[in-house]
Amino acid sequence: MGVPIPVASLDRMEAHVAGDAPGGPGEGPALSLRGLAKRFGAKVAVDALDLDVPRGSFYGIVGPNGAGKTTTLSMATGLLRPDAGRALVLGHDLWADPVEGKRRLGVLPDGVRLFDRLTGAELVRYAGLLRGMDRAVAEERSAELLDALGLADAARTLVVDYSAGMTKKVALACALVHAPRLLVLDEPFEAVDPISGTTIREILTGFVAGGGTVVLSSHVMELVERLCDHVAVVSAGRVLAAGTLDEVRTGSTLEQRFVDLVGGRSVVPGSLEWLHTSSASS
Amino acid sequence: MVAHLLRLKLTLLRNGLRRSPWEIVALVLAGLWGLWVVGLAGAGLVALRWAPHDVAAPTVTGLGSLLVLGWAVVPLVAFGVDETLDPARFATFSIRRRPLMTGLLLAGVVGVPGVVTLVLALLTVVTWSHSLPAALLAVPCALLATLTAVAASRATTTAAAALLRTRRARDVAVLVVGVALIGLGPALNVAGMRWEEIVAALRAAAEVVGWTPLGFAWAAPADAAAGAWGSALLRTALAALTLGLVLAGWAAALTRSEARPAVSAQRSGTHDTSGLGRVLERLPATPATAVAGRCLAYWRRDPRYAMAGLSVLVAPAVLVALAVGNGGAAGPFLLWAGPSVAFLLGWSLHNDLAFDHSAFWTHLAAGVRGRDDRLGRVLAAAPWQTAFVLLMTVGGVAVSGRWDLLPAVLGISAAVYCAGLGVSSLASALVPYPVPPPGGNPFSTPRGAGTATVLAQLATSTAVGLLALPSLVPGVLAVTGAPWLGWIALAAALVLGPVWIVLGVRFGGRLVDRRGPELLATASRS
Predict the structure, then answer these.
(1) What ipTM does this complex have?
(2) Which tens digit of pLDDT belongs to each residue from B177-186?
């Protein structure tokens, strides 16, 4: 793509992060959701959802619009209080003991604002400082991340003036700046052009290769199929199928399995005749 | 098509009411307000029937023109225009321009302001009813005036929106209008004028305004009532022409905005840290100083904050106006410049968290302690606000020449400012209410948030007053007669002020820790 991605610099960041303390939560899943539930008024958005994301996996969550993906990920990252259930980040209960979990967690939510009156460099640096990082380290990592994401030229432009793809990338930089062990990304490829998409993909692949875990939601099946090694199909607030990519798609394509599981309907032959110009009468 | 659009508007209104009980409360309050206005102004219009013509004519023409001007200008600055039916949403339906605009225009009358305007305009029929032909002419003129007013609001907002597509232009425009509004502060002097002076001023103004597009429709029946049928018919024709021109202007603005749909904002150059920001850099790197640095950048770059900062100039402006209006007896009024600025500044942070909008998730995801969040916001505001309060306080005392009252006034300022910071730190975590989003019009109120806004503002300002009482009571007594009591006011402020800030930061911080996700949900709403 012509965009050199110094993935090595991200690997180096990994060295900064404190591993799980000895005697702490051991080799369990990176993210474990137990009986998560949320209702909005009469509508049940998430219905006692269980999910385990193994360490080091690249996990895709797919589901139709309104399946509860965003609600689930918000509850898994401490942004939305669940009505019931637990979310364990590397063994730390995020709702009982938020500090430990949040330290190891990087988040990219969908459909929320950023502090967009800051410049890109200021924003990434701010995300680092909020996590108690040293000023010099925050500065250095901010510059490295913006460089890796191809935003170096826009580092001193206000984020409000960024395009959609640039905004996603700077938000990703914010999620990465404290070298988390687990990344939870809600629709990271939404409204992102192919060039930026490639950059984001290479960063994420490098992150997983370096021992990190990525959970992302998407409704683009091809993308999940190409990128992820694990996948969960979510619909109506429940997990319909989960496991490795091959376990879930069982020889078929992910898209076909998805339609089978969710119960999509195809157009009945013979209907919508009038859409064909040959039969147009008026 | 016109009937479809009217029905759509009513359906949308009904669904809005069904969605939330607060919308019903808001509509009931707006309705009561409308009834009150109609009752008051309507009674005046009916009473004018028995007034001499040279009182009735300028009153109706002057106030009517003001009403049309209000429709055209106010939505640009405050409240915004009711966009229940946004023309852009009809862009993909192939509706011909003329029925679409007719429908949108009539639908614009549906609503409290539209109905109030229509009823008041029609009541001028009663005003001119001592002459039957004049009363008959008043009916079409009332309709012309109402439709022109509604069309003008659409035309100006559509045109402004088309002009202000870029963020920088929008920010500048908002500031210019805001400063102009603040400049109107001295115009409050009208309140001190006697009735005869007002009528005289109106008469002079109406003479001119009656021959402008704002006043044609109001002045025509007045002419007819006086028997001047030549100018009456001329003005009626001009009123009809005005409506046509306004509609044409609206159509042109619509075409323009359709041709250039939401282009992305232009690059706005690079941004550097301010002087105060560099001072913050010297403090240890903690989440609290990080929050302070970010808030400081927002005070400079976000027009919503800039407006809050500038609005503190209103209080001194009004005080100066009062002093001037009082014939140079400036002293007693200017003493209060410091305390009033102290109140506005300390209190201005009372909804700071909601200003973050959904960006507050950054704090939540990073696990920032509530105490650091609270402290950072205070740290960003306190240095420059304290300097400003001191300047206004000492300046006010100096101009009034009452140096013996310095401790009293300083005590009141300090007490009110510190109580304001304390209450704000707690309140923005306790009762945040929706505000316009960043980049939104800082003068508008999100739909359905009006009631919550008023309640929260009343409660927080009352709390500030109560906490400042230990300094307010001796301070006011000092000003009214026993200057030595001022030292008690100052001492109480110096002791209690820091206590209020510490308590506010601590308990506000605990609330943020406990209710973070709920606060995020409230802040994101609007």
Answers:
(1) 0.85
(2) 555 554 444 4
